[in-house]
Amino acid sequence: MTANPIKQKLVNDLLSKESEAVALQQKIVALKRIIEKSKIKPDYQMELSRLQRDRDGVKAILYNLQEQLNSINLSANIKSSRIKQLQKAVRPNAQINNKLKMNILIALVLGLGAGFGLAFLLHILDNRVKSVSEFVKKINLPLIGTIPKYSFSPFLPFKVVETEEELEQKQIQKEASEAVMQLLVLNLKYMQVDELSKAYAIVSPSKGDGKTSIALQLAAAFTNENYRVLLIDSDFHLKKSSEILSAEKNLGLSEILTAQVRYEDCILHLGDCGFDLLPSGKQPPDLKKILASDRFSELLILLKEEYNLILIDTPALLYVTDSLKVLPHTDGVILISRILHTTYHDIKKVIKRIILFNTEIIGVILNYSKSSIFDKEYEDYSYDYYSYKYEKYKYSDNDDKKYNKKAKFRKAKA
């Protein structure tokens, strides 16, 4: 029986296709392996790139080090070619030329000399008022008196207190202030020759000279001498006097000069202090024009009929030039200067401005004075109030006895 050729051909074709399918399956497996390996290959590439970069960095460092070594060797060769050892160093057996003490002494003397020289130079360059005697020699103005530096606030006697302890302390300090002002009041009485001269401006070159405190103390001191005293606050900027006496919000000088109110409605009668106060009022827009008006002169004429003394507290003249317009309305100026604060340059500048406004300077009061061996000839200006025990805010009978003995000694010496 013969085989069917067609069937045999089909069987052969099937076998060949199956073998091809097996071969293809093996290729698929191989390709999958290749694909898996290709997925891992980029990691190897990155690692290789990193190692190559590190290698390049190490090469660069090695190159720089080599260059530095070459330069060092070159400089060493150059130096060694120029330096020659002339003699071998020998270690000394003992210390040679020991001048430690002498050097310390020289340094001490030079340091002290430089210190004294610098102090002297600073003293020469310091243009402040240093003492009463120096002031009298440099400034040709009458000296009304001096006021020592209080160990308490000079404003405290004029403030309102509540407790009995504060009231007692206020009374003691008020007595101390009155004692200091006695000689100043006496000198001002001698200077007040004309009975019609009653209005005086209290001025100072700069802030912090003690102008307002002295104006308050003078007003209180003259009140104790049975004077009818009016204190006018013309400082529209700080309103210090009005603030101390709790009247900074009241109507005052500006409202009177602008004809808004009568002066009788603005004057405050301070029963505790004894004198009257005319507050500054609100600050007007055109201050210079108001202060220079004839209303101010007319107001002072009316007030002179009611008061024996009128003190006008002004702002610092070098800071507020508008206050110079007040001066022509007054009968004179009392200049306040503070030792170790006010400079001679400022004092001379203020004097020139006062003279330009044709106003007489009655005299000068020096604030913050101290008892000094250089001011013995002017010790009487202070009336020896330094013997009072300001630090303890009280006085004793022994202090009065000491003062009486000193007064007798001065009288006998004179």
Class per helix and strand makeup? alpha/beta
The total count of helices amounts to 11
Overall residue-averaged pLDDT value: 77
Helical amount among residues, as a percent range? 40-55%
Distance between the termini: 181 Å
Described by its quaternary structure, the protein is single chain
Low-confidence stretches: 372-414
Task: Please describe the structure with a list of short key phrases separated by commas or semicolons.
single chain; 414 residues; alpha/beta; 8 strands; 50% helix; disordered C terminus
Task: Describe, in short, the structure shown.
Helix content is 50%, strand content 10%. With 414 residues, it is α/β, with parallel strands linked by helices.
Could you characterize the architecture of this molecule?
The structure is a single chain. By secondary structure, the protein is an alpha/beta fold. The radius of gyration is 49 Å and the shape is elongated. The model is unreliable at 372-414 (pLDDT under 50). Helix 4 crosses helix 5. The protein has helices spanning 5-82, 100-125, 132-138, 164-191, 211-224, 240-244, 253-257, 287-291, 294-304, 344-356, 397-413, and strands at 143-148, 199-203, 229-233, 268-269, 276-278, 309-313, 333-338, 361-369. The termini are far apart.
